[in-house]
Amino acid sequence: MLSGFGGAAAPIHQSFSVDEGFLEFGGALVEDKPGIKSLVMDAGYRHSKYTTSAGSINTGKFELQYQPTTDLRLRGSYQRATRAPNLIELFILRWSV
Fold it and tell me: In the chain, fewer beta carbons within 10 Å around the N or the C end?
């Protein structure tokens, strides 16, 4: 079918578009204080609007880094992400099953 490299490529006369907006921010919250060598925060938000059945999707991330001493750093993060289907997945594979 269409798996692997080097095989025949089926013509696809379809398209889709996406409009996106994003915001990212971060920086040091505390530096060089007793018990806190560094405390850094990083966050981001993305809004994507597809012309396919995916519609509108919101994703985001948040990360906190805590460094109590020069030799130790702890990091925790949370992220929600999605992947839009490519043209083959949208317009060929769903009809071949």
Answer: C
Radius of gyration of the chain (CA): 21
pLDDT at 54: 75
- Rounded to two decimals, the pTM is 0.68
What's the pLDDT band for 8 if we cut at 50, 70, 90? low
Our CA dihedral for 97, 49, 18, 85, rounded to 10 degrees, sits at -20
Q: What are phi and psi of 49, to 5 degrees?
A: -125, 115
CA distance 15 to 87: 7
Q: Distance between CA atoms of 62 and 2, rounded to whole angstroms?
A: 38
Rounded (5°) CA angle 80-84-87: 170
Backbone region of residue 88 per phi and psi (left: phi > 0; alpha: psi in -120 to 50; beta: other values): alpha
| Residue 94 parent element (H or E) | helix 94-96
